[in-house]
Amino acid sequence: MWISKTEYLTFNTKKEKELVRITDMVDDFVRRCGLYDGLVLVSAMHITAGVIVNDWESGLHQDIMEWLEDVAPVRSDYRHHRTGETNADAHLKNLTVGYQVVIPVTKGELDFGPWQQIFYAEFDGRRPKKVLMKALGTGSEA
Amino acid sequence: MWISKTEYLTFNTKKEKELVRITDMVDDFVRRCGLYDGLVLVSAMHITAGVIVNDWESGLHQDIMEWLEDVAPVRSDYRHHRTGETNADAHLKNLTVGYQVVIPVTKGELDFGPWQQIFYAEFDGRRPKKVLMKALGTGSEA
Amino acid sequence: MWISKTEYLTFNTKKEKELVRITDMVDDFVRRCGLYDGLVLVSAMHITAGVIVNDWESGLHQDIMEWLEDVAPVRSDYRHHRTGETNADAHLKNLTVGYQVVIPVTKGELDFGPWQQIFYAEFDGRRPKKVLMKALGTGSEA
User: Fold this and answer.
1) What subunits touch chain B, counting only 3 or more CB pairs under 8 A?
2) Any C CB within 8 A of A137 CB
3) C107 class by beta-carbon count within 10 Å (0-12 exposed, 13-18 middle, 19+ buried)
4) Is A104 in contact with C46 (Cβ distance < 8 A)?
5) C98-117 confidence digits (pLDDT tens)
6) Which chain A residues are within 8 Å of B135, Cβ to Cβ?
7) Mean pLDDT, all residues of chain A
């Protein structure tokens, strides 16, 4: 039995820029929808946020955010800001790390290496923003 | 009924570097192939172009192209140029923003947030270049 | 007939940082599992390595590795190193180029442009590390 199922997560971070661990939310979704073997797309529905897979280590998370500030800095003079926006840097950070990952699922489990964890990467937060999860593959009852 | 269908787009931009909005082309493809629920891979078939999802705002587009010039600049001294090529920067820009996206489709529609638009990102244009679209999921008649 | 099949590759590079061409390994997997039309996820199972699609040209490969050293440099003062690790730069390089690609397969062949090749990008090697391949789509006997 092949299945295709979708759910949405909503985040409203307290900080403007923040990494939120969502591995367990994706894992819960996989169990709820009964995916046994296939893929789960985890994709931000906003263009000022990202989704990454990396290490669950707070020092590294600070390194990542500081590095992104070097690569795609906050600046006042982006042309995008002539529209009244102030978040062009968040768009560039989104382009740097990407806004989606495809998670493999095997025998009903996230098929991950020992250190892989999924994070929602907020670059322009303090308001509700959504992430889509879509599972595609064979169901547990297949 | 599960379907798997493929089409190709061809771009021949007037400028060497250019962002081309392709949301409607992907949407048309989804309707033509009858995908009701699933995923569409949108993937450049060249290694000097990208595919991104971001905002449809001309100021931001200039910001993105100038930022990419900072991150992955045109330079004469890339080793790749010893082969006669002059476009190593375009390869690096492709690696920075990525060359493919996976678009979720739900109830026959692109399942997008309010600001998400798909763009073909040409970094070495003025010649015909292709983008593949492949739909995988349940068809409308399922 | 729809199929979903998974295999793993293991790499143990001699150099700490290295690009390894894996196009043929992915192609072999597609033939072995009998995928006729669909997608193959090729995804590193480590957070200090990447998977990219680009040109098979040694000069460009040197350019890519030097460019990554500019964008995400080796440094001693990353916070991550307080844990005893020394590879924070490898995490940042992984975030820059991405750790997975989705390869389209049409009529049993990798549906690639003329210059597209798949590479495993090792940023912290000299130990065994794995890459997952998962095929999803219609089988050859469909």
Assistant:
1) A, C
2) yes
3) exposed
4) no
5) 999 999 999 999 999 999 99
6) none
7) 97
Closest approach of A4 to chain B, Cα-based (Å): 6
Question: How far is the C-alpha of C140 from the C-alpha of A68, rounded, in Å?
Answer: 44
The shortest CB-CB distance from B53 to any of A47, A88, A96 is to A47
Closest residue in B to A92 (Cα–Cα): B64
Q: Which residues contact C93 (CB under 8 A, 6 or more apart)?
A: C48, C50, C68, C71, C72, C121, C123
Please give the share of chain B, as a percent, with pLDDT higher than 90. 97
- The predicted model scores a pTM of 0.98
Task: List the 76-105 stretch of C: residues with Cβ below 8 A of B.
Answer: 96-98, 101-102, 104
- Residue A41: what are its φ and ψ, rounded to 5°? -80, 125
Among B4, B81, B98, the residue with its CB nearest the CB of C98 is B98
Q: Find out if CATH 2.60.120.460 is the number for domain C2-138.
A: yes
Q: How far apart are CA A69 and CA A81, in angstroms?
A: 18
Q: H/E/C letters for each residue in chain B?
A: CEEEEEEEEEECCCCCCEEEECHHHHHHHHHHHCEEEEEEEEEECCCCEEEEEECCCHHHHHHHHHHHHHHCCCCCCCHHHHHCCCCHHHHHHHHHHCCEEEEEEECCEECCCCCCEEEEEECCCCCCEEEEEEEEEEECCC
Nearest to C112 among B2, B45, B88 (CB): B45
Cβ contacts of B80-84, under 8 Å, gap ≥ 24: B80/C55, B80/C57, B80/C59, B80/C60, B80/C63, B81/C59, B82/C59, B83/C57, B83/C59
